[in-house]
Amino acid sequence: MTEHRWEKLLPFFSATYTRKYLFERYEQQEIAQSSTMSYRTCYAFMYHLQHGKLFLEQGANAPYEIKPVLFFYGLIQLLKVCILTVDPEYPSSSQVLAHGVTTRKRKKNRYRFFSDEVKVQRHGLFSHVLDKMFHMKQINGEKYRMETLLLHAPILFPVLESIYKKTLAVPCHIDEATLRIPTTLLDHYHMTEARFETYLNDYSVKKFTRQESSESGDFLMFKASSPLNPFKCHPFLYESKSKVWLLTDREETLHLPSIAIHYLLLYNLSMLCRYETEWWGELFHTFDGEDLPIILRLLDGYEQLIPEWISAFLLGG
User: Which domain of life, per UniProt (predicted)?
Assistant: First the structure.
């Protein structure tokens, strides 16, 4: 348990630390009987964390053909850890135990992962995560295409841009809490500098203030009201504390946190792995089409990305 990616989460393998942490979280949210609730949820929190860690570790060492199932169930366990910090009664009913999304049961001929879609259900873990962790309400029946979801994974940009033969996103660097955004983005968005500043503040939970700079000809400089992290960075796509991205086509930008986007991607990949065995097997043995390199790169990233997301939610960075 000494891997760097789990280092920030190691204190949670102490019941004393976890109870104190949960008590403080519940007190901040003014949840009734915070002390009692922290004792009640402590071990469920720790067991979900341990279970999620085991799934991810096994997924890291498993063949690619079965990684999606292990990573998806690892993510589910770790999301339950996060939910218990804001909803100590979880699960209050069996409705929140379902995955909360669905996909076509039978795949058509000439199926492509890019073109597939998933549909949100009224009840289930997905909607519960958005509600409790992000205060977002999802519309029952809303559909998401894999192609659009994949555009929101910065680790995929090199391979996606090789396939599409065009720039899909623009990198924005963060230096001492100041964002450096290339002015070339204004051409993609068809905006003036003033309109772009308004856009950022309209679509973000943070306040962005324009800064003057000697580099103003090449970059727009903004200071955020608080540091960006994987859960609070919309409309930016988070890569690291020093780098975020903006899609060149702003109409493609989804109002979903990164972890929700990857929940949908992993759900669909795990369903293909389990129930579309013939197509899944042929994908890995015929190397046909463009799906495989994207799926491989995505799976390579989850062992590191998922613990980072959970750490950011629990510890704020």
Answer: Bacteria
**With 50 as the cut, is the pLDDT of residue 102 above it?**
yes
* Edge-to-edge strand ranges of the sheet holding 143-145: 101-103, 117-120, 143-145
Question: Both 148 and 163 in a single domain?
Answer: no
72 and 196 belong to one structural domain: no
Domain of residue 11: give its range: 4-152+256-315
Query: Does 139 have pLDDT greater than 90?
Result: no
Instruction: Say yes or no: 267 and 248 in one domain.
Output: no
Determine contact, residues 51/36, Cβ cutoff 8 Å.
Answer: no
Mark whether 214 and 129 lie in a shared domain. Answer: no
Of 203, 225, 252, the last residue of a domain is: 252
The mean per-residue pLDDT over the stretch 214-230 comes to: 81
Could you report the per-residue pLDDT of 114-125, keeping only the tens digit for each? 889 999 998 999
Mean pLDDT over each residue of the chain, to the nearest integer: 90
Query: Which of 312, 306, 152 has its CA nearest to residue 228?
Result: 312
| Percentage of residues of the chain with pLDDT beyond 70 | 96
**What distance lies between CA 149 and its chain's CA centroid?**
10
pTM, two decimal places = 0.93
HSE-CB for 247 with a 13 A CA cutoff? 18
Average pLDDT over residues 101-110: 76
Both 16 and 121 in one domain: the answer is yes
227 shares its domain with 287: no
Give the integer Cα–Cα distance in Å for 57 and 303.
7
Number of domains in the chain: 2
